[in-house]
Amino acid sequence: MLVFNTEIDNYRFPLANWLVFFVTIAISFWAWNQPEVFWENLQRQTLWGPYYLVISTFLHADLAHLFWNMYFLLVFGNSIAGGLSPLHYLLLYLSCAIFADVISNIFLAEFGIGASGAVYGIMGFFLVAFWKVNLKLWIPPFPVLFPIPGIVFILFYVGIDVFSLWSPSLEEGEQKINHWAHLGGFLFGFSSGMCLKIKGRM
Question: Is there a contact between 54 and 100 (Cβ–Cβ < 8 Å)?
């Protein structure tokens, strides 16, 4: 199942989002080719500090982890970056990532890796900015795209995270997906969007 964002014409070229995209890929591949550095960073995840809070966003466990995070980053991030200045978009993205890691540390006593917390933040911001927009859903093997409201798609994924918090696998320590980071990032992005909307800046 793949989703496409085809209804939004960007105000400007989403330079900042493409920058995040390529930097994340470059750092992830670099880390995989430097396993001693990669694992050292993973082992230091319990240390509290701005260094790991930022660098962890650009580290990924494997190619599938990287692919899906970057895929959803492009689906939702280009529309947001096309309406914000590059500096404001980067501040939003990194703030979502840091807040997601903080929430993860509060509830799981550890930091995660990957861009998913930041991407969920961008999805939360997207929900406020473009809540009326329809996405296009492709379900193999059907050769057509099915329209789906963006708000339904996003809240479906958020609902999965909320439900998964009480799944038996999480209680047994077998859950590898950091749902707390997802929800933390989403909350920060959604709140940021609402603040701008209330102030009439969106």
Answer: no
